[in-house]
Request: fold
Amino acid sequence: MLIKENHSILIPVDFSKQSYIAVKQSYNLAKFTRSKIILMHVSPNSDTEHKDDLEQLAETTRRDTGLQVETMNLKGDVYETTDRMAAELKSALIIIGLDTHVKFRSILGGNNITKFIKNAPCPVITIRSAENRDGCKNIVMPFDLSPESREKVSFAVQLAKYYGADIRIVSVFHPSDDKYENKLLPYLHQVKKFIKQEGVNCTNKSIPSAKVAEAIVDYADKNDCDLIIQMNQKDLTIGEMFSGTSGEKIVEISQIPVMTINPMKRESMSHFGSGM
Reply:
């Protein structure tokens, strides 16, 4: 499963600094995937709010990129509407800017962003920083023993080829679990072999830490990384339902763009070939 080409990239725009950055971050991906950009403003009150502003932004984007750009003004909840429209449009990707004040809470409490990412029909890139990143040199790919973890490898390879980037595999294990790294090692060898066969440079790093999200984001910050790519955790424990998953925490605290992919299937990790 890969990012689809010749489709659309859907960008909810609320005219915050982060949403403007989301638009700029779409330029290269739209060119790589030959996709049109759809700028969408959603208001709980009106389907004409900021219409002129949105059209002006679209015109600027067309002029700066030469890309096909369309606009949509809709009334409703921004997160629910974005998922619905992405499904209707068969969008290849959603890129959304998140204000720094937006936090995750328990999914049992009905957090909209958690539901939004979980229900997204395509990969979602979330952006918290107000600084634009021109290009992508290093992609962080957290990797663990979960059945879903291998599914993001093909996305990471696709993006690395687009950008000419390296993939940095990061595995975080609890300091008291000295057997985990040995369990993970054979899978890491398979993944690295597949990535290198695809012509992409790859490194791996194991980090002992009880705080998975913080360790991954800290690694990304210190190693000049431009994107974190992760799988959304499908099956949650009771504790995670109340405290949130590591993936949610990464989206919440990372100033580096984060691509979250919902798992599509569960297969044996013993095959790394055309199905990735």
Q: What stands out?
A: Confidence is low (pLDDT under 50) at residues 101-110, 235-243, 266-276.
